[in-house]
Amino acid sequence: MFGLIIRRLGQTIPVLIGASILSFLLLNLLPGNVAMAILGANATPSSIKIVNSELNLNHPIVQRYLEWVWSALHGNLGTSFVTRESVVSTVFARVPVSFELVVGTLIVALVFAVPTALITTKWRGGIVDRVGTLVTVVGLSVPNFVLALVLVLAFSVKLHLFPASGFIPMSQSISGNLSSVALPIFAMSLVFFGTYARLLRSDMLQQLDSEEYVTLARAKGLSEWRILIRHVFKNSSFGLIVVAGTNFGQLVGTTVVIETIFALPGIGQLLITSIGNRDAPTVQGIVLILGIVVVFANLFSDLLYSSIDPRVHYGNADS
Fold first, then answer.
1. Beta-bridge partner residues of 117
2. Which residues does the chain have with pLDDT short of 70?
3. Number of domains in the chain
4. What is the pLDDT of residues 147-177, one digit of tens each?
5. Containing domain of residue 116, as a range?
6. Which CATH number covers residue 177?
7. Against a cut of 0.85, is the pTM above it?
8. Residue 86 lies in a domain
9. 281-314 burial by CB neighbour count: b if 16+ within 10 A, else e?
Protein backbone atom coordinates (compact mmCIF):
# COMPACT_ATOMS: atom_id res chain seq x y z
CA MET A 1 0.00 0.00 0.00
CA PHE A 2 2.78 2.43 0.93
CA GLY A 3 4.66 1.55 -2.24
CA LEU A 4 1.55 2.25 -4.31
CA ILE A 5 1.20 5.70 -2.74
CA ILE A 6 4.86 6.54 -3.41
CA ARG A 7 4.67 5.38 -7.04
CA ARG A 8 1.48 7.31 -7.73
CA LEU A 9 2.86 10.47 -6.15
CA GLY A 10 5.94 10.08 -8.33
CA GLN A 11 3.73 9.80 -11.41
CA THR A 12 1.89 12.95 -10.38
CA ILE A 13 4.88 15.21 -11.00
CA PRO A 14 5.26 14.66 -14.79
CA VAL A 15 1.48 14.77 -15.22
CA LEU A 16 1.20 18.16 -13.52
CA ILE A 17 4.24 19.52 -15.38
CA GLY A 18 2.80 18.41 -18.71
CA ALA A 19 -0.61 19.91 -17.96
CA SER A 20 0.90 23.23 -16.84
CA ILE A 21 3.15 23.49 -19.92
CA LEU A 22 0.27 22.69 -22.28
CA SER A 23 -2.10 25.20 -20.70
CA PHE A 24 0.63 27.88 -20.59
CA LEU A 25 1.44 27.43 -24.27
CA LEU A 26 -2.20 27.41 -25.35
CA LEU A 27 -2.88 30.64 -23.46
CA ASN A 28 0.06 32.33 -25.11
CA LEU A 29 -0.99 31.09 -28.56
CA LEU A 30 -4.44 32.67 -28.29
CA PRO A 31 -4.92 35.71 -30.55
CA GLY A 32 -5.04 39.13 -28.96
CA ASN A 33 -3.11 40.85 -26.22
CA VAL A 34 -3.49 40.50 -22.46
CA ALA A 35 -2.98 44.22 -21.92
CA MET A 36 -5.70 44.96 -24.46
CA ALA A 37 -8.06 42.60 -22.64
CA ILE A 38 -7.37 44.43 -19.38
CA LEU A 39 -7.40 48.03 -20.63
CA GLY A 40 -10.08 47.70 -23.29
CA ALA A 41 -10.24 48.52 -26.99
CA ASN A 42 -9.32 52.21 -26.46
CA ALA A 43 -5.98 51.44 -24.82
CA THR A 44 -3.06 53.53 -26.05
CA PRO A 45 0.31 52.01 -27.06
CA SER A 46 1.98 53.66 -24.07
CA SER A 47 -0.53 52.23 -21.58
CA ILE A 48 -0.20 48.78 -23.17
CA LYS A 49 3.57 49.02 -22.79
CA ILE A 50 3.23 49.96 -19.12
CA VAL A 51 0.87 47.03 -18.39
CA ASN A 52 3.15 44.59 -20.22
CA SER A 53 6.07 45.80 -18.11
CA GLU A 54 4.11 45.58 -14.82
CA LEU A 55 2.94 42.03 -15.55
CA ASN A 56 6.31 40.89 -16.95
CA LEU A 57 4.62 40.08 -20.26
CA ASN A 58 7.62 41.45 -22.13
CA HIS A 59 9.77 38.60 -20.81
CA PRO A 60 10.40 35.49 -22.96
CA ILE A 61 7.75 32.81 -22.59
CA VAL A 62 10.20 30.26 -21.15
CA GLN A 63 11.35 32.71 -18.50
CA ARG A 64 7.76 33.53 -17.52
CA TYR A 65 6.89 29.84 -17.21
CA LEU A 66 9.93 29.08 -15.07
CA GLU A 67 9.16 32.06 -12.84
CA TRP A 68 5.63 30.75 -12.38
CA VAL A 69 6.88 27.24 -11.55
CA TRP A 70 9.32 28.62 -8.99
CA SER A 71 6.55 30.60 -7.31
CA ALA A 72 4.17 27.59 -7.40
CA LEU A 73 6.77 25.44 -5.64
CA HIS A 74 6.68 27.97 -2.81
CA GLY A 75 2.88 27.89 -2.59
CA ASN A 76 2.35 31.10 -4.54
CA LEU A 77 0.26 30.72 -7.71
CA GLY A 78 0.57 34.38 -8.56
CA THR A 79 -1.86 37.28 -8.79
CA SER A 80 -4.78 37.61 -11.16
CA PHE A 81 -4.12 39.95 -14.08
CA VAL A 82 -7.71 41.20 -13.93
CA THR A 83 -8.71 41.40 -10.26
CA ARG A 84 -5.16 41.76 -8.85
CA GLU A 85 -6.13 39.30 -6.11
CA SER A 86 -4.27 36.18 -5.03
CA VAL A 87 -5.03 33.22 -7.31
CA VAL A 88 -5.01 30.80 -4.36
CA SER A 89 -7.64 32.77 -2.43
CA THR A 90 -9.74 33.35 -5.56
CA VAL A 91 -9.80 29.68 -6.53
CA PHE A 92 -10.39 28.28 -3.06
CA ALA A 93 -13.25 30.72 -2.50
CA ARG A 94 -15.06 28.91 -5.33
CA VAL A 95 -14.12 25.36 -4.36
CA PRO A 96 -17.23 24.74 -2.15
CA VAL A 97 -19.60 25.27 -5.09
CA SER A 98 -17.79 22.90 -7.45
CA PHE A 99 -17.16 20.38 -4.67
CA GLU A 100 -20.87 20.26 -3.82
CA LEU A 101 -21.75 19.72 -7.48
CA VAL A 102 -19.22 16.91 -7.98
CA VAL A 103 -20.00 15.06 -4.75
CA GLY A 104 -23.74 15.54 -5.17
CA THR A 105 -23.60 14.26 -8.74
CA LEU A 106 -21.63 11.18 -7.71
CA ILE A 107 -24.02 10.40 -4.83
CA VAL A 108 -27.17 10.86 -6.92
CA ALA A 109 -25.79 8.78 -9.79
CA LEU A 110 -24.84 5.89 -7.50
CA VAL A 111 -28.03 6.04 -5.42
CA PHE A 112 -30.16 5.56 -8.54
CA ALA A 113 -27.75 3.34 -10.51
CA VAL A 114 -27.33 0.59 -7.91
CA PRO A 115 -31.07 -0.17 -7.37
CA THR A 116 -31.69 0.08 -11.13
CA ALA A 117 -28.92 -2.44 -11.83
CA LEU A 118 -30.17 -4.80 -9.11
CA ILE A 119 -33.80 -4.69 -10.27
CA THR A 120 -33.01 -5.10 -13.99
CA THR A 121 -30.65 -7.98 -13.19
CA LYS A 122 -33.20 -9.75 -11.00
CA TRP A 123 -35.95 -9.51 -13.63
CA ARG A 124 -33.80 -9.59 -16.74
CA GLY A 125 -35.63 -9.96 -20.01
CA GLY A 126 -38.91 -8.68 -18.58
CA ILE A 127 -40.69 -5.39 -18.87
CA VAL A 128 -38.85 -3.95 -15.85
CA ASP A 129 -35.51 -4.79 -17.45
CA ARG A 130 -36.53 -3.19 -20.74
CA VAL A 131 -37.73 0.00 -19.08
CA GLY A 132 -34.56 0.23 -16.98
CA THR A 133 -32.38 -0.37 -20.03
CA LEU A 134 -34.26 2.33 -21.93
CA VAL A 135 -33.73 4.83 -19.11
CA THR A 136 -30.00 4.11 -18.94
CA VAL A 137 -29.64 4.43 -22.73
CA VAL A 138 -31.41 7.80 -22.61
CA GLY A 139 -29.07 8.86 -19.81
CA LEU A 140 -26.04 7.95 -21.89
CA SER A 141 -27.40 9.58 -25.05
CA VAL A 142 -28.56 13.01 -23.90
CA PRO A 143 -25.74 15.59 -23.55
CA ASN A 144 -25.74 17.22 -20.14
CA PHE A 145 -25.89 20.76 -21.54
CA VAL A 146 -29.00 19.88 -23.58
CA LEU A 147 -30.61 18.30 -20.52
CA ALA A 148 -29.69 21.36 -18.46
CA LEU A 149 -31.51 23.69 -20.88
CA VAL A 150 -34.57 21.41 -20.93
CA LEU A 151 -34.64 21.31 -17.13
CA VAL A 152 -34.46 25.10 -16.92
CA LEU A 153 -37.30 25.44 -19.42
CA ALA A 154 -39.50 22.87 -17.68
CA PHE A 155 -38.86 23.38 -13.97
CA SER A 156 -37.79 27.03 -13.84
CA VAL A 157 -39.58 28.84 -16.66
CA LYS A 158 -42.78 26.78 -16.84
CA LEU A 159 -43.32 25.32 -13.37
CA HIS A 160 -41.28 27.80 -11.27
CA LEU A 161 -40.15 25.02 -8.93
CA PHE A 162 -36.39 25.69 -9.01
CA PRO A 163 -34.29 28.79 -9.72
CA ALA A 164 -32.83 29.03 -13.23
CA SER A 165 -29.51 30.44 -12.03
CA GLY A 166 -27.58 31.54 -8.98
CA PHE A 167 -26.25 29.82 -5.88
CA ILE A 168 -27.28 30.00 -2.23
CA PRO A 169 -24.61 28.82 0.26
CA MET A 170 -25.66 26.16 2.72
CA SER A 171 -24.65 28.47 5.57
CA GLN A 172 -27.45 30.86 4.55
CA SER A 173 -30.22 28.34 3.86
CA ILE A 174 -30.11 24.58 3.54
CA SER A 175 -33.35 24.41 1.59
CA GLY A 176 -32.28 27.30 -0.62
CA ASN A 177 -28.94 25.64 -1.24
CA LEU A 178 -30.50 22.33 -2.23
CA SER A 179 -32.96 24.14 -4.48
CA SER A 180 -30.17 26.04 -6.26
CA VAL A 181 -28.09 22.91 -6.99
CA ALA A 182 -30.92 20.43 -7.70
CA LEU A 183 -31.17 21.03 -11.45
CA PRO A 184 -27.39 21.26 -12.04
CA ILE A 185 -26.77 18.02 -10.15
CA PHE A 186 -29.55 16.19 -11.98
CA ALA A 187 -28.25 17.44 -15.35
CA MET A 188 -24.76 16.18 -14.51
CA SER A 189 -25.75 12.89 -12.88
CA LEU A 190 -27.91 11.39 -15.64
CA VAL A 191 -25.05 10.29 -17.90
CA PHE A 192 -23.09 8.86 -14.97
CA PHE A 193 -26.21 7.08 -13.74
CA GLY A 194 -26.50 5.36 -17.13
CA THR A 195 -22.83 4.39 -17.14
CA TYR A 196 -22.83 2.94 -13.62
CA ALA A 197 -26.16 1.10 -14.02
CA ARG A 198 -25.14 -0.59 -17.28
CA LEU A 199 -21.68 -1.48 -15.99
CA LEU A 200 -23.00 -2.98 -12.76
CA ARG A 201 -25.82 -4.88 -14.49
CA SER A 202 -23.45 -6.35 -17.09
CA ASP A 203 -20.97 -7.52 -14.47
CA MET A 204 -23.65 -9.05 -12.23
CA LEU A 205 -25.22 -10.92 -15.15
CA GLN A 206 -21.82 -12.31 -16.09
CA GLN A 207 -21.24 -13.56 -12.54
CA LEU A 208 -24.71 -15.05 -12.22
CA ASP A 209 -24.22 -17.05 -15.42
CA SER A 210 -20.63 -18.24 -15.06
CA GLU A 211 -19.32 -18.13 -11.47
CA GLU A 212 -19.16 -21.35 -9.47
CA TYR A 213 -19.88 -19.67 -6.13
CA VAL A 214 -23.31 -18.69 -7.49
CA THR A 215 -24.05 -22.33 -8.37
CA LEU A 216 -22.93 -23.39 -4.90
CA ALA A 217 -25.12 -20.76 -3.24
CA ARG A 218 -28.13 -21.91 -5.23
CA ALA A 219 -27.40 -25.51 -4.26
CA LYS A 220 -27.49 -24.47 -0.60
CA GLY A 221 -30.98 -23.11 -1.14
CA LEU A 222 -30.22 -19.39 -0.86
CA SER A 223 -32.79 -17.09 -2.45
CA GLU A 224 -31.94 -15.24 -5.66
CA TRP A 225 -32.21 -11.88 -3.92
CA ARG A 226 -29.79 -12.93 -1.19
CA ILE A 227 -27.33 -14.30 -3.73
CA LEU A 228 -27.63 -11.14 -5.81
CA ILE A 229 -27.28 -8.60 -3.02
CA ARG A 230 -24.95 -10.29 -0.54
CA HIS A 231 -22.61 -12.03 -2.94
CA VAL A 232 -22.86 -10.97 -6.59
CA PHE A 233 -23.30 -7.25 -5.93
CA LYS A 234 -20.37 -7.18 -3.52
CA ASN A 235 -18.02 -8.69 -6.11
CA SER A 236 -19.36 -6.54 -8.94
CA SER A 237 -19.00 -3.34 -6.92
CA PHE A 238 -15.21 -3.44 -7.29
CA GLY A 239 -15.37 -2.42 -10.92
CA LEU A 240 -17.90 0.27 -10.08
CA ILE A 241 -15.53 1.78 -7.52
CA VAL A 242 -12.70 1.96 -10.05
CA VAL A 243 -14.89 3.55 -12.74
CA ALA A 244 -16.33 6.09 -10.28
CA GLY A 245 -12.81 7.05 -9.24
CA THR A 246 -11.57 7.46 -12.80
CA ASN A 247 -14.73 9.44 -13.67
CA PHE A 248 -13.79 12.09 -11.13
CA GLY A 249 -11.84 14.04 -13.72
CA GLN A 250 -14.78 13.89 -16.11
CA LEU A 251 -17.06 15.10 -13.32
CA VAL A 252 -14.81 18.09 -12.72
CA GLY A 253 -14.77 18.85 -16.43
CA THR A 254 -18.56 18.67 -16.62
CA THR A 255 -18.89 21.41 -14.00
CA VAL A 256 -17.32 23.88 -16.45
CA VAL A 257 -20.35 23.66 -18.75
CA ILE A 258 -23.00 23.29 -16.06
CA GLU A 259 -21.73 26.17 -13.92
CA THR A 260 -21.76 28.42 -16.96
CA ILE A 261 -25.35 27.49 -17.88
CA PHE A 262 -26.69 27.93 -14.34
CA ALA A 263 -24.43 30.91 -13.47
CA LEU A 264 -22.94 29.13 -10.48
CA PRO A 265 -19.86 30.80 -8.92
CA GLY A 266 -17.64 27.71 -9.06
CA ILE A 267 -14.22 26.90 -10.42
CA GLY A 268 -15.61 25.98 -13.85
CA GLN A 269 -17.19 29.38 -14.40
CA LEU A 270 -14.00 31.07 -13.13
CA LEU A 271 -11.97 29.05 -15.63
CA ILE A 272 -14.15 30.10 -18.58
CA THR A 273 -14.05 33.75 -17.53
CA SER A 274 -10.29 33.68 -17.00
CA ILE A 275 -9.66 32.14 -20.40
CA GLY A 276 -11.77 34.86 -22.02
CA ASN A 277 -9.79 37.52 -20.16
CA ARG A 278 -6.49 35.73 -20.89
CA ASP A 279 -5.83 35.75 -17.16
CA ALA A 280 -2.90 33.32 -17.33
CA PRO A 281 -2.08 33.08 -13.58
CA THR A 282 -5.68 32.18 -12.70
CA VAL A 283 -5.95 29.59 -15.48
CA GLN A 284 -2.59 28.08 -14.53
CA GLY A 285 -3.62 27.88 -10.89
CA ILE A 286 -6.94 26.21 -11.71
CA VAL A 287 -5.27 23.66 -14.00
CA LEU A 288 -2.69 22.80 -11.34
CA ILE A 289 -5.26 22.47 -8.53
CA LEU A 290 -7.67 20.38 -10.61
CA GLY A 291 -4.80 18.17 -11.77
CA ILE A 292 -3.84 17.48 -8.16
CA VAL A 293 -7.47 16.75 -7.23
CA VAL A 294 -7.94 14.29 -10.10
CA VAL A 295 -4.69 12.46 -9.38
CA PHE A 296 -5.52 12.05 -5.70
CA ALA A 297 -9.07 10.95 -6.53
CA ASN A 298 -7.67 8.16 -8.72
CA LEU A 299 -5.21 7.22 -5.98
CA PHE A 300 -8.04 7.06 -3.44
CA SER A 301 -10.09 4.76 -5.68
CA ASP A 302 -7.09 2.43 -6.06
CA LEU A 303 -6.51 2.35 -2.32
CA LEU A 304 -10.19 1.71 -1.65
CA TYR A 305 -10.26 -1.08 -4.23
CA SER A 306 -7.23 -2.83 -2.73
CA SER A 307 -8.63 -2.40 0.79
CA ILE A 308 -11.94 -4.03 -0.13
CA ASP A 309 -10.28 -6.87 -2.04
CA PRO A 310 -6.94 -7.88 -0.44
CA ARG A 311 -6.21 -10.10 -3.45
CA VAL A 312 -5.49 -7.00 -5.55
CA HIS A 313 -1.84 -5.96 -5.69
CA TYR A 314 -0.50 -3.02 -7.68
CA GLY A 315 2.94 -4.31 -8.41
CA ASN A 316 5.18 -4.25 -11.45
CA ALA A 317 4.33 -6.03 -14.67
CA ASP A 318 6.32 -9.14 -13.79
CA SER A 319 4.45 -9.71 -10.52
1. none
2. 1-4, 30-33, 36-42, 305-319
3. 2
4. 899 999 999 888 888 988 888 888 888 888 8
5. 97-308
6. 1.10.3720.10
7. no
8. no
9. bbbbbbbbbbbebbbebbbebbbebbeeeeeeee
